[in-house]
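Whether sequence alone determines local backbone shape is best considered at the level of individual chains. We regard such an encoding as a compact summary of how the chain folds. The sequence in question and its structure tokens are set out directly beneath this paragraph.
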Amino acid sequence: MAHEPGWGAGTHANNTNVQTAIHPLLKQYGVQMYLNGHNHNYARAVVEGVQYVTSGGGGAPLYVPSPSMPNIVKTDQSFHYTEFDVAGSTMTMTARRADGTVIETISVPQGSGGGNQSPVANAGPDQIVTDSDSSGSETVALNGTGSSDPDGTISSYVWKEGATQIATGSAPSVNLAVGTHTLTLTVTDNTGATASDTVVVTVNAAGNQPPGSFSLLSPVNGKSNVSKTPSFDWNDSANAVSYSIVVDNDSNFTSPEISVSGLTSSSHTSSVTLGSGTTYYWKVTATNANGSTTSTIFNFTTRK
């Protein structure tokens, strides 16, 4: 344990004494984890198989850690603390935020420092996505490909939400409901050593989005010999609450012969009889509380 880390996340200068004097001894005697403080944030660096954990969450708001600093594999700017638990021959370190959520968990088997080195889990950056089709959920691509093993290979990737396994593999796609999800990736290397990391995925509801783009279907553009009481159809617009349709023999729609609003389905059959052998233009506008989206303009010609 040291006051200043040899490799931190950029909020203070690295301690060169740790780098030049302590680090060789840690390697020599098979020490796998070295705990540091001072830097007012959580950071973990991996240098030649030694994990340097900085746990200084008491001053979390003071400094912003940089995940791009050399050898850094995890950072977090929050009030936090570290827990250590020994079960059998394995020591487990859990970095936990003050609200109880887990930053990450690292397991170190007894004697692994002199032989096998534990893998490094990397669940990827936190994500914020939007429910694009208002279905109540969204497909999210997870990314654990940044995980590694310093002296072997990773044999399995398991993703869980709480106690429930939701996926396996290094880069699976999962369907998540609207809300905030804390997912844990646990990787296991070819000797059975494990490590875990978490990622927070927030799925926002689509309600703050205007209607999505959509297409007109029928009458198709340029169609002739159309009924004088035509039926109109178009694709659904994502997030739309209602539709309005206008039809006019003037493409500027200065005096529409059909103008209907408040439609809740993507079709409308006219109760107005249009003129014979006349070219008409039509368009549809989808609307919700956050705006509106208008289709392209189609034209058709009625039968004589």
